[in-house]
Design brief:
Length: 360
């Protein structure tokens, strides 16, 4: 009975929270803007189209997935975990480095003096429910208390496995002052209401191709194929995107969540290449997930088309978001590398807690 009451309370709360009005940033000169929200630049791949289901059927399936034991998705082998090199992380100012916290959460040290977090989620579940939803397979590779002072946080979109209220509130209270919160249009409104207590001074909102200059770095939000939602009633009310972080001598690409689309060619036309990238490789089964996420094969194509020197696979091994096993993506990545002629050390996966030290 308590479980049913909790679900009913959640539904009522989501209904109230999700009754959004018009898009406050609507610009009719921009094709991806709509009065009620945002759309992708390019049509979805019809080969990945999801079978039609009604609203009720769709959410029944989600709840069933959230409350299953997840045994069919358990890894065949332990997910690699490594003790973080805290001495290096806290002393590092000059070497580009990437530490995997888990899923899409990284500490990116730019080599130019910035500590940047991507999509920080430190909670046990990526869910609006404390008792159900995708459960973390292992603790974060870095605990909140182990982080160096964070200068900026890049948020790719509003899904629960990328946008965490509790994590962001804790980070906003860090010693030494709050980080800069960089977010797509609409997510800034959520941050103001749920994280900063109405203070907008540390929030930067970006549309696609908008840029932020920060201490010698350029941070730009890039268009990718995905979608957004926090409730059943606010689909695509806020924008989504990938990020490019560049400075003289080094460039980093963070994919966020994306499906493979012509957006990749558009990004490649504006950037000569990237030194380092974090690209999603998980949550690609069943096939209709691939209008929102990329398979390892598509991730390797993105790596090649963006002319990335070194790519790290993310969005696997932490939260069971797709129907494949938690460790299936690295095996499929190895096949994709071989088939596309990409060296093993050019696109690899890391242990949770591991730091990759890039050459500046």
């Amino acid at each position: 009975m308590r479980y049913m009451i909790s679900l009913a309370s959640l539904a009522a709360g989501l209904l109230l929270a999700g009754c959004a009005g018009i898009n406050p940033y609507y610009d009719d000169a921009k094709p991806h803007h709509r009065p009620e929200g945002f759309v992708n630049n390019y049509p979805a791949n019809p080969a990945y189209r999801r079978p039609q289901t009604g609203f009720v059927e769709g959410w029944v399936a989600r709840v069933k997935n959230w409350t299953s034991d997840g045994s069919a998705r358990l890894p065949l082998a332990p997910i690699p975990v490594r003790k973080p090199d805290l001495a290096f992380i806290h002393a590092n100012k000059a070497q580009p480095a990437l530490t995997w916290i888990g899923h899409a959460s990284f500490l990116f040290q730019s080599g130019g003096g910035l500590n940047i977090l991507t999509d920080p989620v430190f909670e046990e579940r990526a869910s609006p429910l404390s008792f159900a939803g995708p459960k973390r397979h292992q603790p974060p590779g870095l605990a909140l208390a182990e982080l160096p002072h964070v200068d900026a946080i890049l948020i790719s979109h509003s899904h629960y496995d990328h946008l965490s209220q509790d994590s962001l509130r804790a980070l906003y209270r860090q010693a030494g002052g709050p980080p800069l919160l960089v977010a797509p249009l609409g997510v800034d409104v959520w941050l103001e209401e749920n994280v900063t207590g109405g203070d907008r001074s540390r929030i930067v909102r970006l549309d696609w191709w908008d840029k932020l200059e920060l201490r010698g770095h350029e941070i730009r939000l890039l268009p990718v194929m995905h979608w957004s939602a926090r409730t059943p009633w606010d689909r695509n009310a806020s924008l989504w995107g990938a990020y490019a972080v560049t400075r003289p001598g080094f460039s980093f690409f963070f994919s966020g969540d994306l499906g493979y689309s012509r957006d990749i060619a558009d990004i490649a036309a504006r950037y000569p290449g990237f030194d380092l990238a974090a690209i999603g490789i998980g949550a690609y089964q069943p096939v209709w997930y691939r209008n929102s996420h990329v398979s390892p094969d598509e991730a390797v194509r993105i790596h090649r088309e963006l002319k990335v020197k070194r790519s790290v696979g993310m969005h696997w091994g932490t939260f069971p978001m797709g129907q494949e096993r938690l460790d299936q993506a690295p095996r499929d990545l190895a096949v994709a590398r071989r088939e596309q002629g990409v060296a093993d050390d050019a696109f690899f996966v890391m242990a949770v807690g591991e730091t990759y030290r890039a050459q500046p």
